[in-house]
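hey can u check if this looks right to u? its 232 residues, i copy pasted from the old doc so theres a chance i mangled smth
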Amino acid sequence: MPVIDEIREQHEIVKKKGLKYRLQYFWDYYRTATLFTIIGLIFAGSIIHTFVTAKDTRFEVLMINSFSSPSQEAFGKLLEINEKKEEVTFDYNFYINPDPEAMDNATYANSQKLMAVIASKSADVMIAPETLFTRYVNGGVMGDLRNFFSESELEALGDKVLWLEIYDADNDETLPAAPLAIDVTDAPGLKDNACYPQDEKILMGPIINSKHPEDFKTFYNFLYSSESSSGE
C-alpha cells in the first residue's frame, strides 16, 4: 500500500476515536514538530519586536566602574528628544580592574565591549576614575576640549580642566599636553547618586568620534544641575 494511503487510513481511524486518543496520537506523532514551530515563532516574534521597538541612541555616556547614574530621563527631557524614537543611555555596566597588570575575565570582556562601543561611534562621553581615564587618553580615545568649549569657557573652568600628555606608541613619542579632561568629582549628579566612592578623583571627557559634540557642554552643565540628582 502506498504511504499516502496508509496515512489516510490512519487518519480515518483517529477520526473514529475519542478525544483522549486523538490527543495522545497528536502528542506521539507531532509534538517535536509542534515544539520546534512554537520556538521558531517565539524567536521570530522576539526579533520583530526588537526591530520595531528599537530606538536611536541620542546621547550615550560610558560610566566606567560606576555604581549608578544620574537620571537618563531628565537629560532626555533637557535635550527634548522624541521618546518614542530616541533614548539617552548612561551605561554604568563597565567594570575595568584598576590594576594595569590585572586582566581578569570581567576586565577583558568589558574592555572589548567598551572599545567596540567606541568604534561604533555611538558613545559621546566617558566618565571614569583618574587612573582608568588616563589609559584611554593614551589610547587616543578622548577629544580635545577646545573643540567643545570656547577659550573663555575653558578659562572659566579653571583648575577643573586637566591638560594631559598623550604617548603616541606608533611613533614612540609624547605629544604636547592638551585639555582632554574635566574634574567632575564634585558634580552633584555623581555625588548625590553615589556613582563613585568619595575618595576617588573622577574625570570626564568627550569621545573623539562623538556624533553629538554640540551636547557635551549641555551634559557637563547637567551634572551640576538639580535635575541630575534624581537618579534612575
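Confidence is low (pLDDT under 50) at residues 43-53.
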